[in-house]
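## Example record

The block below lists the input lines for one assembly entry, exactly as stored, with component labels intact.
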Amino acid sequence: MLKDITLGQFFPGTTVVHRLDPRTKLILTVLYIVLLFIAVSWASYGVVFLFLVCSICLSRIRLKAILSGLKPLVILILITGLLNLFYTRGEHLLFRVWKISVYWEGVRTAVLMALRIMLLITGTLLLTYTTSPIQLTDGLEKLLNPLKKLRVPVHELSMMMSIALRFIPTLIEETDKIMNAQKARGAEFDTGNIFQKAKAMLPLLVPLFISAFRRADELATAMESRCYHGGEGRTKLKVLRMERRDWIALTVGVLLLVLVILLRRLGL
Amino acid sequence: MSPLIETKKLTHIYSEGTPFEHVAVRDVDFSAARGEFIGIIGHTGSGKSTFVQHLNGILKPTSGSVLLEGEDVNGSAAVTRRVRGRVGLVFQYPEYQLFEETVRADIAYGPKNMKLGKEEIEQRVLEAADFVGLEASLLDHSPFDLSGGQKRRAAIAGVIAMRPDVLVLDEPTAGLDPRGREEIIRNICRYHDAVGGTVLYITHSMEDIARFATRLVVFNRGQIALDGAPEEVFRHVEELERIGLTVPSVTKVFSILRSRGLEVAEGIYTVDAAVEALLRLKGGGGNA
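Predicted structure tokens for the full assembly:
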């Protein structure tokens, strides 16, 4: 059941999107988010959407995986949509019920907002679906490297991030196991009022914390016994290299940015 | 005898419809009668753990059904809840589920969830602790102060305290030293003799299981490959080895002797039977 959480999951593959340098993908994702916030018209949304669809098709990620990634956020999207629907004032009144009036502009903003959130999430999902956590933090470390000059502990931060990401599935699996073991002893996690539910979590949380600390301890020992001492002079197993496809992808991204800015200027 | 628990065409597929799709158990028909002591053997990933997690409704079958005394385990939430108390499942490394402040409270967790009376619970805790060989003086300690073997036994007691009709143990001796292993096996045998319930014991150690199981079920690639009395199953030395399992050393020796032309019986798996067979071969028998 908990294994079904797809946020932050990685689907291995060998498509172009999978093989892109993680730096390229990170930059493109940031670019994509910027694009989404610059886009105001249907036309520019169309451009962004097209870009996303092409990327998804290239990555061969199944639509089902993307939909299941969107599912946990349906409520957020709905609330944002509804708030925009009711609170946007405009000139073209559609209807008015009691004190609530809905304008044509409200409908437009609501739809665009909902679309924006969905596109935002889908885009970032695509990044994590096609990039392994290790690659992701490697890329991030490289991109943030200049900050080392400002004494930002970039390597340590990215190591912490890799470890955290690395242990999410492990902890989820562990939670699943302990939950099952307690269920086998008659525990019920989904019945009763909120206090009963909170109390029922205790048999789950205590073993989970203990095992998390044990794992942290073991990991620290394992790292020290392999002489880990931070990023100084450390080399990479897989050296990141920008290939032709990376430059092409980045060029496409920049062109899209120009296109969307142009569309905005032209007021389309 | 009508079966106590049975599965019909049980199939379980993990992550169906994703790139990680994996058929763990396929079309398994299995049934166990009251009082049987069944050893479930199989290679890592053969589906044996997945299979037993269906028996008390922890995992829901992708298709097929699990019946406890003819009643579908997954029929309704209420049935599943009842079944949890009747089919006790001890997971692998069960000591990681301990959470209470005292061993006593931890063992009482299962019975408490069954909404039993206070005195009844206390009695069951003492009984279960005795079955697994935990001294009463340890009951008021924190479970986290116990040794590895003691923790394991406390966790097993937590399931036994529910007095299940079917006790399922998933590799209860994994990671223990020989003495801890021996103690757990002996205690489980003693429990089985005293209570007369059905015990399903998962292991991949043939030596362990050969000595006390009344029946062996061998899993391979999510299906039951062999099922029968130990001497019957151990007759299939080659098949077992092809699956990746080792037979007890005695069986191995006798299988080689047979292939060299000695006339000894098939499926010998205990030292006693081996001695008897050798004596018979000498033509003497009796005076060893």
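The interface with chain B takes residues 3, 11-12, 62, 64-65, 174, 177-178, 180-188, 202-203, 206-207, 210-211 of chain A (CB under 8 Å). The two ends of chain A are 46 Å apart (CA to CA).
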